[in-house]
Automatic annotation (TrEMBL):
SMART domains: RHOD. It comes from Rhizobium laguerreae. It comes from the Bacteria. This is Thiosulfate sulfurtransferase. Residues 17-107, 140-231, 276-363 form the Rhodanese domain. Pfam families: Rhodanese.
């Protein structure tokens, strides 16, 4: 070991001590897969030096780089140290050393999305439907709509035929336009379980009148049943109508009835972001098109639906404050906050009128 490496035992202690900590799995994304076994931010080795500042706003944060046992993390930790990142360390032996003891349950950086969503399902008894049941409903001519809560890019790659793309954070905001009738059965789908369960439970918590369930194992189950998926941007949500906005405003009250988040102003957000003793993320959870058109300087766009199930892909520092930024209605921010608070994040809401006049006054 060198001064820039830590042992697996030290790493275990750091994961448990509750202090700010960033962890990066620097292996190739193909090797990392669905973030196992660390459930930490995947930042490939070749991008670490150029991209670390986007994920870790403060150079003093304890940061651990974990490689595949090839020593790449040590070299990167040394280079970053020379560049002013004094508290960056490599996990000695990388993933092979971390998994060598073959424990039944290794500690993780973040709660795996599947584990969290299954806990929600078991607590709330979220209704479920199988692929076979869905097919029977369709074959019988039932009024049923499938909503895919993944990103639009994922939806475009493949989805259950005739599904509509509405990423998780947009569900309540776009719902009335996608499902105009209270009699329509709603089935929420993703590639597997996490975003489907959380999407379905979001609508149930918001007390929509429709019968809502999630599709068990989503597209995976669809192909497992020998059925073909559809591809392309076939049916994607559009601009929210006045009726959809009114519906979202009404049902947001039900969704957020038991939630308690501070609502801050831009000046407070800036003060927090510049706090030398605490990390703060300023995350804009509107659509990518809205963010590109207008946003506050110093903020990051983060797909709200992704934050629901895989927050570690954006929030690399455990123990950081998270400010969710949205338009004045705040449906996306409050939907994301509804679930992130249950994952232990400290959340605040910043609502901004993104018209050019208002933005110039606060940016």
């Amino acid at each position: 070991m060198t001064q820039k490496t830590i042992s697996p035992d030290t790493f275990r202690n750091w994961l448990a001590d509750g202090e700010e900590l960033a962890v990066f799995d620097i292996r190739d994304p193909a090797a990392v897969g669905y973030a196992s076994p660390l459930f930490a931010t995947n930042l490939p080795a070749e991008l670490v030096e150029s991209e670390i500042g986007r994920f870790v706003p403060r150079t003093v944060v304890r940061t651990v780089l974990v490689d595949g046992g090839d020593g790449a993390a040590i070299l990167l930790a040394e280079n970053l140290g020379k560049a002013g990142w004094a508290n960056v360390f490599a996990l000695d032996g990388g993933i092979p050393a971390w998994t060598a003891k073959a424990e039944a349950s290794l500690p993780t950086f973040d709660t795996p999305g599947v584990d969290f969503s299954l806990a929600v399902r078991d607590e709330r008894n979220t209704p479920v439907i199988s692929v076979e049941e869905l097919k029977r409903l369709r074959d019988a001519g039932e009024d049923v709509v499938v909503i895919d809560t993944r990103t639009v890019a994922e939806f475009s790659r493949d989805h259950v035929p005739d599904a509509v793309s509405v990423p998780g954070a947009e569900l309540l905001l776009r719902f009335k336009d996608v499902v105009p009738s209270d009699k329509t059965k709603v089935v929420v789908s993703c590639a597997g379980l996490p975003r489907a369960i959380l999407g379905a439970q979001t609508l149930i918590d918001a007390k929509v009148a429709n019968q809502v369930s999630y599709l068990h194992d989503g597209t995976k189950a669809w192909t497992g049943a020998g059925l073909e998926l559809e591809t392309g941007r076939t049916r994607v949500y559009g601009e929210a109508s006045p009726a959809a906005l009114d519906f979202a405003r009404e049902h947001l009250q039900a969704l957020s009835a038991d939630d308690r988040f501070p609502e801050i102003d831009v000046a407070t957000a800036r003060k927090w972001a510049n706090d030398p003793g605490r990390t703060t993320y300023l995350l804009d959870v509107r659509t990518p098109e809205e963010f590109e058109k207008n946003h506050l300087d110093g903020t990051l766009w983060s797909e709200g639906g992704q934050l629901l199930g895989v927050a570690y892909r954006t929030i690399a520092v455990r123990g950081a404050r998270v400010v969710l930024i949205d338009d004045p209605l705040g449906v996306r921010a409050r939907t994301v906050a509804h679930w992130l608070q249950r994952r232990g994040f400290e959340i605040a809401i910043l609502l901004v009128d993104f018209s050019a006049q208002q933005l110039s006054a606060v940016a």
